[in-house]
Write a structure and sequence with these properties.
The protein is an alpha/beta fold and 328 residues long. It has a single domain (8-325), classed as Ribokinase (UDP-N-acetylmuramoyl-L-alanine:D-glutamate ligase). The chain is 31% helix and 22% strand. It contains nine helices and 14 strands. It has a nine-stranded mixed beta sheet with strand order 6-5-1-9-10-11-12-13-14, with helices on both faces. A five-stranded mixed beta sheet has the order 3-8-7-2-4. Helix 5 links the parallel strand 9 (155-161) and strand 10. Helix 3 (64-74) packs across helix 8 and helix 8 runs antiparallel to helix 9 (292-306). The radius of gyration is 19 Å and the shape is globular. The termini are far apart. The model has no long low-confidence stretch (mean pLDDT 92).
Length: 328
């Protein structure tokens, strides 16, 4: 566990999952009542049963926020990450992946007890769909001690998963961390990925996210759900990013809207991690002081690179720093 005064470009707070990726039959999805092209949660016994039925699964460290942090690191930035894993094989694999990428592990020691590390089984079916069987395990077990020793002024950007604000068990703890960070010099970035309903969490959407976030990002459905609570976020200093998948993206900032088209794909494996790496590219560009149009160009370049891979983050032995020279 590292707590020092060195300047980070980006530090993330998120849910730590290990992705277990394998081909699967439609019958397997039906037998476990897994909805096609989306997912559901399972208890520890069920998730282990599903994994045991898979042939030749691949294991990769995952989770939306750590995926983005891995992308920022591959672009040459100094990064750190807060997340929870258990003292089990998957948790150790996740921590080892951080080490390989020179991402500082800012979390307390692995959790002990009966909890498992978070698991996301990605089931790839013949029609190109991605369906998910998830087990949260210990991913939400944050405490005040998780952040109390960290100096938020030591990072330029703090990236937080909005699903931690919309979740009852973590909302107060993450809101406290955001408030603490907002009193420092760092800029707060919140992704609303996976959050499609803020009912009962309106205070977090308004008083924490809309008030404190410098950058907010989500797809069209997620942003509509947020704006249904907050109204349009019109502060000209804030950067509001809406992604549209294959149709590209657009940004509202400083009273202007900037649109950017997605790149034509030279090679497509799957879309796993495309949004995570889009954000990685955008954040890297912002740390360099690039304008919005160039930031979107780098974001799109990173998203295009990851869809040609099996996992949701660049390989630990790969650098993306060359992408910086591709942007006019």
């Amino acid at each position: 566990m590292i707590h020092n005064k060195s300047l980070y470009d980006v530090v993330g707070i998120g849910r730590s999952y290990v992705d277990v990726i394998a081909s699967a039959s439609y019958n397997l999805l039906k037998s476990y009542d897994i909805p096609l092209d989306t997912g559901r949660y399972f208890d520890a016994q069920q998730i282990q049963e599903i994994q045991s039925s898979l042939k030749n699964p691949q294991h990769f460290a995952g989770g939306a926020i750590p995926n983005t942090i891995a992308g920022v690191a591959a672009l040459g930035s100094r990064t750190g990450y807060f997340g929870n894993v258990a003292d089990d094989a998957l948790g150790r694999a996740f921590s080892e992946d951080l080490q390989k990428r020179a991402i500082d592990d800012l979390a307390p020691n692995p959790l002990t007890g009966d909890l498992l590390s978070g698991t996301c089984v990605v089931l790839l079916t013949d029609g190109g769909e991605r369906s998910f069987a998830l087990h949260k395990g210990c991913v939400d077990h944050f405490t005040q001690a998780s952040f109390s020793a960290f100096d938020f002024s030591s990072t330029r950007y703090l990236l937080i998963g909005g699903n931690l604000l919309s979740n009852a068990s973590t909302a107060d703890m993450i809101a406290s961390a955001v408030t603490q960070a907002a009193s420092s010099s760092c800029k707060i970035v919140i992704t609303v990925s996976e959050v499609r309903n803020w009912q009962g969490r309106e205070v977090y959407a308004n008083d924490i996210l809309a008030h404190h976030a410098h950058i907010v990002i989500g797809n069209e459905t997620e942003m509509q759900a947020l704006f249904a609570i907050t109204g349009d976020i019109t502060d000209p200093e804030k950067i509001i990013i809406t992604t549209k998948g294959a149709q590209g993206s657009y940004v509202h900032h400083d009273g202007k809207t900037t649109e950017h088209r997605a790149m034509p794909h030279a090679r497509f494996v799957n879309s796993l991690g495309a949004g995570d790496q889009f954000l990685a590219g955008f954040l890297k560009a912002q740390t360099l002081g690039w304008p919005i149009d160039q930031s979107l160009a780098l974001a799109t370049r990173c998203a295009d690179a990851i869809i040609a891979e099996n996992e949701a983050r660049p390989r630990a032995d790969v650098s993306w720093e060359e992408f910086l020279t591709d942007i006019p």
